[in-house]
Amino acid sequence: MLQYSPRQDGYGTVLRLHKKGLILTERTQTYRHALVLCDGEKPSVEQLHALRMEDTLVIAADGGGNIGKDWEIRPDLIIGDLDSDDGSWPDVKRLYDPDQDTNDLEKALDYAHVQGVSRITIIGGTGERLDHTLKNLSVMVRYKEAFEGLVLLDNYMKARLISSPFTMSTWTGMKVSLVAASGKVTGIVSEGLLYPWSGQDLIVGHYDGTSNQATGEQVTLRFEEGDLLLIVPLDGQSCRVAQDGQLGHDGPPGHAEQPSAGSIS
Amino acid sequence: MLQYSPRQDGYGTVLRLHKKGLILTERTQTYRHALVLCDGEKPSVEQLHALRMEDTLVIAADGGGNIGKDWEIRPDLIIGDLDSDDGSWPDVKRLYDPDQDTNDLEKALDYAHVQGVSRITIIGGTGERLDHTLKNLSVMVRYKEAFEGLVLLDNYMKARLISSPFTMSTWTGMKVSLVAASGKVTGIVSEGLLYPWSGQDLIVGHYDGTSNQATGEQVTLRFEEGDLLLIVPLDGQSCRVAQDGQLGHDGPPGHAEQPSAGSIS
Asked: Are residues A224 and A110 both part of a single domain?
């Protein structure tokens, strides 16, 4: 219900959190990367363990904190109205925020922004209820200016709203899908895609951009306006968060040692 | 890649199918309802068996035909480029359509339209890969004028693009989510919702409409322009397709005998 108005110093967010009566912790450490755990479909233990946790702030969005049952990742904080918190982590700090105008993911992103985090990886943000998935995509659109990188990751794909121009490392045949997250993206021009774009608009219900693939080692995308969601299906590759907080593939299937192909950060 | 141009007699679709060199079967029976099986997350056997199959044309969109392994629903036809067809139904007719400009769901909907079907239930159209789910939503937007009803159903929710005005039976506390499928829906006015709409716009990234709920036995929605996706989370209720091809709940949890509450057809 709120339009996100990013400020360079995060002042807008701090103001909102203060208005809610939330006590902000002082920053004892500056994190570049935050892992936000949501309450949707869980990633595999293998995928999660492949995420490197160094220099990463782990924020559980309410029920996302219950992962203790299945995984061994302890959140630094659990935030939300806590109606889905099953108490899995009795000694983890809770930040109770009952605001009905923001969902749990928004609360977690607000907190990360206040903490100065620049890159976010959201897991458990898809699957099960489609309305939750679509709401989380809308939240990503809302917060895209607030972070340098905002990646949504599950067992099947990773997705990111990209800026123009955008370049990523690829391999021949790597699947790449483009989606207009807010209905329309204008003037797309691509290099390195099997079905190239030469200025067309991507429009929901009229002109789609899924099921494309890379023709070589690099794809570049340019566009004029809109929220362009880049989705890279994983097809069994493992994923990792590199030391700089970037999220990358380990390479094509059968070539797990290829260092950073397919990074969409 | 094609803009759908519905004609009353389906002539446009027939023309496209002929252009592809597809041989059209003559209509031996007129169906009002078609069940389209896609290759995403499978619904539970219980849910699928609760769908009444009388007077229903069952179209498998390529790999959607493989359900024979898990379910006991025999498709009348398998359509697509057949690259995902595992041969589960050796004696079912295949319609090979390798067109790269349409996905399997579009091919199935084209076929249903030619057969004069007015109501569609899509299952297996969500889950697993987000790009496939979003593509299928885009296809729903494209074909919304071609059918009287176009419902997307999975284990967690049913979704439908609605026209204005729209009324549905509900019960107090029934969850209702609204999503702008193509980015923006203008001037929404509601009756019977806990968080009412009084002319606001629904805009991806700015103003969302998920996690609402009904306050009584009926919800009415009006809006000006846009593609309004109505999502009703199931929360464990069973689903059925009524004799007229309408899709309805069996009622709130614990009240399975309530005849047609929650219909969104």
From this structure: no
